[in-house]
Amino acid sequence: MRIDIITCLPKLLESPFSHSILQRAQDKGLVEVVVHDLRQWATNKQKQLDDYAYGGGAGMVMMIEPIDRCISELKKDREYDEVIYMTPDGERLEQGIANQLSLKKNIIILCGHYKGVDERVREAFVTREISIGDYVLSGGELAAAVLSDAIIRLIPGVLSDETSALTDSFQDNLLAPPVYTRPAEYKGMKVPEVLLSGHQQKIEDWRAQKSIERTKDRRPDLLEE
């Protein structure tokens, strides 16, 4: 998989892709993440990317021309399955969306900034709009990193145990059950006996029941879907 991220603040994305699982995925050649500085496609000496909104009002708007030039150049080298715009008014990111996108080959993620992008960008180039929650960030960079993380960890071979992602919260519209590790007792707090029993079927039954109980308590809306 290849993920191309278009941003006016590329340094914000250096750290997320330089550590842990995301770094190892790239080192293994399972995913290629390329961050593009949109200013390379600016049209004037000032490397301007934004301008005042027609009709007035507070805030600046990202201009269409640099974005068009960038996306058009990327598309000369490969076909893209999706051009995703990170925006608060997009569809809310859920596990099912991450599952779908993990099967794609090439994705562009466009990071908004200021008051957002010229609406014509959304009409002409964007194929999908995604939000990571009902709140507003200073720009789409952190949201792009969140989306990328959610996608990349699902690619076969990224996690050392490929079945791990299949038992995460939300995969079956359920929250994950409680988990424990050594020591078996700490300051009077004990690990449930069933997890120490070695009886795998009983353990799986216990986990399934706890998963349902936790979901009912914390996210009952998931059980209604």
- In total, how many beta strands? 9
Topology order in helix (H) and strand (E) letters: EHEEEHEHEHEHEEHH
- Predict the CATH topology of the largest domain: Alpha/beta knot
Radius of gyration: 22 Å
Give start-end ranges of low-pLDDT stretches: none
- Give the strand order of the largest sheet, numbering strands 1, 2, ... along the chain: 2-1-6-5-7
Question: How can the largest sheet be summarized?
Answer: 5 strands, parallel
What is the rounded distance between the termini?
31 Å
Binding site for S-adenosyl-L-methionine: 112, 132-137
Main location: cytoplasm
Function: Specifically methylates guanosine-37 in various tRNAs.
Protein name: tRNA (guanine-N(1)-)-methyltransferase
Question: How would you concisely characterize the structure shown here?
Answer:
It is built from 7 helices and 9 strands; from the N terminus they run E-H-E-E-E-H-E-H-E-H-E-H-E-E-H-H. By secondary structure, it is α/β, with parallel strands linked by helices.
What would the keywords be for this entry?
7 helices; two-stranded antiparallel sheet; alpha/beta; five-stranded parallel beta sheet; Alpha/beta knot; single chain; Trp Operon Repressor, Chain A; 9 strands; 2 domains; 225 residues
Task: Give an account of the 3D structure.
31% of the residues lie in helices and 19% in strands. It starts with a strand and ends in a 7-residue tail after the last helix. The mean pLDDT is 95. The chain has two domains: 2-153, SPOUT methyltransferase, trefoil knot domain (Alpha/beta knot, 3-Layer(aba) Sandwich); 169-223, Orthogonal Bundle (Trp Operon Repressor, Chain A), CATH 1.10.1270.20. Strand 3 (50-52) and strand 4 form a beta hairpin. The protein has 225 residues and is α/β, with parallel strands linked by helices. It comes from Roseivirga spongicola. Residues 1-224 form the tRNA methyltransferase TRMD/TRM10-type domain. This is tRNA (guanine-N(1)-)-methyltransferase.
